[in-house]
Description:
Blueprint: H1 2-25, E1 34-38, H2 44-52, E2 57-60, H3 63-71, H4 75-79, E3 82-85, H5 94-100, E4 103-107, H6 110-123, E5 127-133, H7 149-157, E6 162-169, H8 181-197, E7 206-208, H9 215-220, E8 225-228, H10 230-233
Parallel strand pairs: 1-2, 1-8, 2-3, 3-4, 4-5, 5-6, 6-7
Helix pairs in contact: 1-2, 5-6, 7-8
Amino acid sequence: MEELAALIRARKEAIFARIAAAAERSGRRPDSVALMAAVKTRSAEEVAATVRAGVGFIGENRVQEGLAHLQGLDGWHRERMRLHFIGRLQANKARKALSSFASIDSVDGPDLARRLSRLADEEEIVRSVMLEVNLGEEDQKGGVPPGEAEALARLVLDQEGLLLTGLMGIPPFAQDPEAGRPHFRTLARLFSRIRSLHLDPDQFVFLSMGMSHDFEVAVEEGATLVRIGSALYGPRRSS
């Protein structure tokens, strides 16, 4: 465990050095950007080692896999992590996700928003949520189209039990990281507009964009949270 944590810590530090350089290029403070470990297909041991390495934000793509990771962790690790759900959320798993994750980052439509609000009311909790924006309007991906994001944000802000804390987006994949820049700019503009609608703008803090191959471009365009998988762990295992 300690050897694995040391390896992840070294990779984390290398990533943070690149984040710092990108932030400085755009006139931002390096500590304005946080790192989330994307742990799809990873083991509970790897998640534990990630927390030991000082990465507190953990992003889960699947509800059942996230629950399995939680079951494999003791109280020490759970207290030092904030578990976000970043995958496409099926309606029949919404209650489990709401009760198990600190944040649902992939709210992509009115129906899901209303369902989460109703479930939060039944569970007597308030849960942080983020809107997922389908930046390339790709049929195979979840997310609200950019042109509908502001209306969805207004709806979420009116829902009981939900606290809107940010936006998440993934541009269409391209080998050249620069290809994502226009999409990151679109999301950053949306973030600014929606933040101006928020009753408490200081709670609307997460601009979650950028992954292992393009996070430096995302940081240059304003990301406050980057989701990193392969740069921390190596190639993803087949799922």
